[in-house]
Amino acid sequence: MKRLAAVVALPLLLAGCITPLPDLMQSRAPCRDEPGGWCDFVREAAVESYAYAMLSSNAYLDDDAYAALPKAFVRREAADNDGTGLAYLVFDRFEVKHGERGRLAARVIAFRGTEFGPFNDIFSGSLGDAQREGAGKVYAAERALLDAEGHADVPIEVTGHSLGGALATQISIENPDVRAIVFNTSPFFNGDPMMYDTNRLAISERGEFLRLLRRYKTIPAAREVVINCNPSSSAGSKHSIRALGDCLMWIAAYEDSEALGLLGKDDEPVVKPEVECGDKDKVHPGYQSYLVKPGETVPPCIHAARPD
């Protein structure tokens, strides 16, 4: 709730001073004959991003943290709020073969988003350079550590939600080999948003409130996917990284067996996104459940704009 209070306040402080650009929406096409009613590009984006949404959620170190992560990811360290409000988690991502971890594939920095407090996060992160500069130092330290350990060929990936997404974007703009996956991201970064934008994927929930600010700045990712998971939720609730992470995991489970297995790992299992066809307690149909025998068909899954 505190996390929500801070981010809700920010657009109200800043929305009156910018000129709008078009709002790009990419999740409106009817795909009722596809798995869960989700278009193929949405399923592909979910498979690519759901694990990073989990890392971004866990960066808050709160009750919404995921108890189990995909096998590839191992947490290394955490840094809580410094004097500027900067906080992050560091993970190692390994190759996984036959259920076993192999060589180190990447190091991942997950930046925390805005939190409630004495407005440190808003003014140091969104309106000032302190957190951006701090994030750059974190990246440089991790890069130097990898190099010293003999892993100069191992890339660094960055991720984050809200302000954390802006910090990840900043690192990716400044470093051409850094891949960024961001969620409901803030537009408060510096530099050319098109610089190395093919290295970035941005996922957002349709109708979440930071869209009001993102409209006034060029999209900083070559790929942006807007997903309509829970249409009856408020704009503030739609900003939640845990809710978006759950939705992405559910969608990914149509293509990814590990995502399917993670749906029930927490004390509160991941449930069907409100918009998807079926009852609210619908059991996930399963990995590649849309593959049928010759002559058989899968009933269409029509998304609902509002619950019945």
Describe this structure in a few short sentences.
The chain contains eight helices and seven strands, in the order ααβββααβαββαβαα. With 308 residues, the protein is of the alpha/beta class. Helix 5 links the parallel strand 4 and strand 5.
Helix fraction, binned, reads 25-40%
Radius of gyration: 19 Å
Strand order of the largest sheet: 1-2-3-4-5-6-7
The overall strand count is: 7
Structure explained in plain terms:
The chain has helices at residues 2-14, 40-58, 120-126, 130-148, 163-174, 211-214, 241-252, 257-262, and strands at 73-79, 88-97, 100-111, 156-161, 179-183, 200-205, 223-227. The chain starts with a helix and ends in a 46-residue tail after the last helix. 30% of the residues lie in helices and 17% in strands. The protein has 308 residues and is α/β, with parallel strands linked by helices. Helix 2 packs across helix 7 and helix 4 crosses helix 5. The longest helix is centred in the first third of the chain and has 19 residues, at 40-58.
Give the key terms.
7 strands; 8 helices; seven-stranded mixed β-sheet; 308 residues; alpha/beta; globular
List the helices and strands and how they pair.
Elements: H1 2-14, H2 40-58, E1 73-79, E2 88-97, E3 100-111, H3 120-126, H4 130-148, E4 156-161, H5 163-174, E5 179-183, E6 200-205, H6 211-214, E7 223-227, H7 241-252, H8 257-262
Parallel strand pairs: 3-4, 4-5, 5-6, 6-7
Antiparallel strand pairs: 1-2, 2-3
Helix pairs in contact: 2-7, 4-5
